[in-house]
């Protein structure tokens, strides 16, 4: 459970940006490029209630690089949204509450809370339809690589077994 006190220990978005090392230039570039449709921004405002958004991330993560700027742009300027950012590796107590499939420390995590810190929604890593596209493409690439290197890879298995057995 995330308390208001724990939530307030997180970094503001600006503090997160200030401490970034890896991918900062690309992150800022994405932040400038992202355009949020007015109807999407308005839909969030029409919720009519205060939202606290807890973000768990790390600056080296590719999914975070692509997804955190989108969330930041979506909530930017909305007086009903307070966002706090936590680094995954420095906050295992939070991360372990949001394990992907109950076992993976996937990031980014966006956890949405009402004013009383009741969780109302969560987003982990990336949208499922994006994961589906990525996994399909990765399978195609693996199959193509195996077909292209089949003979060499089979010999590599033989060489590895021989090396392990010193034969």
Please explain how this structure is put together:
The chain is α+β, with helices and mostly antiparallel strands. It has 2 domains: 4-126, Glutaredoxin (3-Layer(aba) Sandwich); 127-167. Helices cover 52% and strands 15% of the residues. Strands 2-1-3-4 form a 4-stranded mixed β-sheet, with helices on one face. Helix 5 links the parallel strand 1 and strand 2. Helix 3 (24-33) packs across helix 5 (62-75). It is elongated and about 70 Å long.
Judged by helices, strands and strand pairing, the structural class is alpha+beta
- Name the CATH architecture of the largest domain: 3-Layer(aba) Sandwich
- Average the pLDDT over all residues and give the rounded result: 93
Using the coordinates shown, work out and report the CATH topology of the largest domain.
Glutaredoxin
Strand residues, percent: 5-15%
Outline type: elongated
Q: Which series of helices and strands comes N to C?
A: HHHHEHEHEEH
Backbone CA Rg: 21 Å
Low-confidence stretches: none
**What is the topology, as strand order, of the major beta sheet?**
2-1-3-4
CATH superfamily of the largest domain: Glutaredoxin
Largest sheet: 4 strands, mixed
| Number of strand elements | 4
Which range best describes the helical content: under 10%, 10-25%, 25-40%, 40-55%, 55-70% or over 70%? 40-55%
Q: Count structural domains.
A: 2
CATH class of the largest domain: Alpha Beta
